[in-house]
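Lab channel / #folding
Pinned by the channel admin:
"Please post every new chain as: sequence first, then the structure tokens as a reply. Keep commentary short and put observations after the output so the thread stays searchable."

First post following the new format, from NK:
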Amino acid sequence: MDERKRDSMIAYLRHRMEEFGITPEALASAMASDESEKTKARYRDVSGETWSGEGEMPQWLKQAISAGQSIEHFALSAKEAEKAPAKRGVDWEKDPFAGSPLARSGGR
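Reply from TO:
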């Protein structure tokens, strides 16, 4: 989409939101609640990768199944699914090797 079309669409959406009394905060809240409903994990691997069971099966699960593991091995109980943590990223600010020759060489 070119920039003029994008700007036009944004102006249109802002106008319609104002017309219906929808605030950006209300929209963000509604989108966040929709996202949390969609992303309840049903399967998880040891590294924290999760899958809801909807849509295409992720690569990590395809590989595990093709290697002989059963999908039930990764299934979460209802209690676990509710508290399934999001995949943790790397906190580079706390990485003692960030920027060092060790980090740049890939640990070789």
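NK: The longest strand covers residues 43-44.
TO: also worth noting, The longest helix spans residues 3-20.
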